[in-house]
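On clarity, I found the account of how folds are encoded harder to follow than it need be. For illustration, here is how one protein appears when written out as sequence plus structure tokens.
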Amino acid sequence: MARRLDQEEPLTALSLTHVVFNPSDRLSNVFAYITLAPIAILVAYVTTIMARREVAAILILIGQLACESFNAILKAWLKEKRPTDNLRDSYGMPSSHAQFMAFWATYSILYLYRRITVLFQDIP
């Protein structure tokens, strides 16, 4: 049965990403751990680079790191406070997670589009 939103329950922070979630809600638990996706993606980048030494993996890692640097510059420039004060001392906007995943999704779509169009050009 769904809980009412006005009921106050203590929230727990996932310390690695500082995501606050309700520990008694299973869906909240799942979404909190989904926020670890950027870390898993970085591990996949490094693993691919070390195992296969692909230029595409090196380029996406460099792009991702440049994107994170740009995010840090934007945060320092905009100085937008976080929605709640109890999470971290850094600024909240722009979202590092959102920017990370937007870069990854855009790069992945463009990479796949390029690979698929090259693949279908070779078919007579």
